[in-house]
């Protein structure tokens, strides 16, 4: 990004660490808006980097979240009370344990 944007915005992309700051803010989907690309190639690279940020940071957070939800569901199922119906012997706990 430094190579692409430094001529158009020497005050925003004066050196590589400034371009890296923009990259970190974009990859983590924070996007402070303090630095942003204005050239067509810079905007294209910015869009690609933003999508990479979603793939690198946002989507993988669903894996542990799903694990926590599955564990909560498993513990809830374990704590269910199984009550047989006095007439047919079927499980009536789904009727009683509705929350």
Q: Name the CATH architecture.
A: Orthogonal Bundle
Unreliable stretches, pLDDT < 50, 5 or more residues? Answer: none
Mean pLDDT: 83
Instruction: Indicate how many domains the architecture comprises.
Output: 1
Shape: rod-shaped
Strand share of the residues? under 5%
Number of separate helices: 5
Radius of gyration: 26 Å
Largest sheet: none
CATH-assigned fold name: Helix Hairpins
Helix amount, in percent? 55-70%
CATH class: Mainly Alpha
Q: How do the helices and strands follow one another from N- to C-terminus?
A: HHHHH
End-to-end distance = 53 Å
Q: What's the count of strands?
A: 0
Quickly give the structural class: mainly alpha
Oligomer: single chain
Task: Break the fold down into its secondary structure elements and pairings.
Layout: H1 2-5, H2 16-27, H3 40-58, H4 62-78, H5 93-96
Kindly describe this structure.
The chain has 99 residues and is mainly alpha-helical. The chain has one domain: Helix Hairpins (Orthogonal Bundle), CATH 1.10.287.70. The chain contains 5 helices and no strands. It has helices spanning 2-5, 16-27, 40-58, 62-78, 93-96. The longest helix is centred in the middle third of the chain and has 19 residues, at 40-58. It is rod-shaped. The N and C termini lie far apart (53 Å). The mean pLDDT is 83.
């Amino acid at each position: 990004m430094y190579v692409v944007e430094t001529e158009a915005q020497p005050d925003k992309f004066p050196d590589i660490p400034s371009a890296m700051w923009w990259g970190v803010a974009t990859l983590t989907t924070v996007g402070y808006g303090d630095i942003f690309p204005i050239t067509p190639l810079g905007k294209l690279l910015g869009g690609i980097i933003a999508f990479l940020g979603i793939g690198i940071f946002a989507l993988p957070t669903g894996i542990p979240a799903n694990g926590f939800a599955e564990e909560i569901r498993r513990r809830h199922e374990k704590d269910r009370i199984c009550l047989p119906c006095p007439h047919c012997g079927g499980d009536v706990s789904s009727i009683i344990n509705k929350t």
